Amino acid sequence: MVIWRLEKGWCGPYTNYTYPEMQNEHNKDSKNHPGINSDTDFKFQWGMLCGFQKYGLLLKWFDNYLPKLKLLGFRVVKYKVPKKYVLFGKSGLQAAFNPEKAERL
Q1: Which strand ranges, in their side-by-side order, compose the sheet holding 95-97?
Q2: Where are the domains of the chain?
Q3: pLDDT tens, position by position, 49-88
């Protein structure tokens, strides 16, 4: 399956508190931006990467923050990941995957 991800190198936009305004807003909005741990019933493991099953979900998630994230050097990247290595968030919004089992497209 394909997973869509926003990243700079291997790092996502929540790594190292890259964009605190966005992160603070997303932390306040757990309905539309649930934390990955609670969204996967705490099955998320260190080293996994977060992404989305559909490009449209990525756009919806980052919404008006996407232009600034692109200016900060973030790019949309696609990964091909066997479904058995993907954790699907119960929100239906996000997914996490094992990068060692993924192929960057």
Answers
A1: 49-51, 95-97, 86-88
A2: 2-104
A3: 999 999 999 999 999 999 999 999 999 999 999 999 999 9
